[in-house]
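A protein record pairs a chain with a discrete description of its three-dimensional fold. The following entry can be read in just this way:
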Amino acid sequence: MKWYYLPIVTAASLAASMALAADLKTKKAPEAPPPPPPAWLDTLTIDGYVEGGIAMNFNQPFNKWNWGHLYTSDANQPTFNGLVVTMQRPLDPKSDTYDFGFKAQVQLGEDMRYNHLTGTTEYWMHTDTQIGPLEANVQAHLPWKTFLSQGGIDVKAGIFPTYNGAEVMYAKDNLFYSHSYIFNFGPFLHTGVMTTTHVRDWLDVYAGVTTGVNTFIGWPGDNNASPSFHGGFGLNLLDGNLTILGIVHTGPENPKQIGGPYNPGFGLPIASWPNTPFACVCNPNSTNRTYANLTTTWKVTENLTLITDMAFNRESGWNPASALGGVPQNSYFLYDQFFPNFVAPTGFPTTALSYLPQYPKGAESYAIAQYASYKVNDIFKVNGRVEYYRDANNFFVAAYPGYFDAINALHGFFCPSCIFRPANVGTSYLALTIGTTITPELPKLPIITGLIIRPEFRWDTAVNGTTPFFRGINGPNGNGQSRSQGMFNMDVIIPFSLL
């Protein structure tokens, strides 16, 4: 090579080297492949909690009963609310493929008196402590993405908790130990099929068919053999910081079992069709009970959350008695046999009660509850709740002191120890509750995953002058009734994990 070519070759080689280096520098190293999704069984969990508490009633009720309460109904004595064990494999609702899961949940404890499904385990244990299922369902995520289901569809079939209301049966997910009237006297469990259609990121639509409220399938699981509708909508706004859930459950709920209303004058239950306690002459398969809730949850800041729960309930097939002595309308014909000389009001063609007009009157309740929760730190959370509940006909709020009372009333069986307030009067309840949720730090323990302590003060009163609450009977003229009751309640929850 001639010497004068050398500078040209050197310059070209240097330029090529620099270009190659620059190219290598701008190229990114190949990315590592994403980790494989976990195996189906890897997401299986087994966990639960143990809960116990006490509800101290300052009225010192003579019958040791807190009116208007269910899970905290026993006054001034410890309550073993329950041991709950849950086995589940949850769905991934954002999955782009088919996904399947299940949930099985069992409860042993005193709360189970009110949580039973008809036709399952309701008469297994003849004590306050009972056992039964809270959930037993299979689930599927269907990635059927259309204009009306951009996020796919979720399906749930089996036994599942109601979608109504702000409070839930799973104790550790609530702000308070005591429950609202909306929760206590609304639906608890359903058996059926529910679908959730993810229309958009901000809109879900719920629709399903159930056998009713706290009912199973078949005989004696369904007390009237008619289906009900369960559905509504959910809005997810402000990046999930604001949710609005509108849900309704409606369908026939009156039982048509043997053993009708109880009349103290006769001392025996009156058997009559449709054998519905405190009901009118009507077909239980065509008289609906509707529970409707609109629940708004707003996470105002990282520490402050506000919840508003509004409810409207209506029973269309109800009229417990005429004005003539409190005789159930569907027992008029039996009353005539005992009192054949009863004289009907002027204008009626006979002296028999059976010829008086008989029609369903219906019963309603409506309510609003406002919650506020402020997280002080990782240990303390301060909670407040104010609720107004109007039971316009004294139909919904009741007491079930016997350990089979709640399930007997649901079946339509004879229940002389069930307690109801005078019909057609109505009671307006106001309840104020303030409390804290304490989650202290614990040393690492096997199985046990935490500790939750929830003390609260609660005051209930009837604002329309009625006296629905119990108190001590003072002196020979005491009637054991009060316009209000004050309480201090506290429970302890110990969560655990087995898998």
Q: What stands out?
A: The chain has one domain: 46-319+359-497. The CA atoms of residues 91 and 101 lie 6 Å apart. The chain has six helices and 22 strands. The two ends are 78 Å apart (CA to CA).
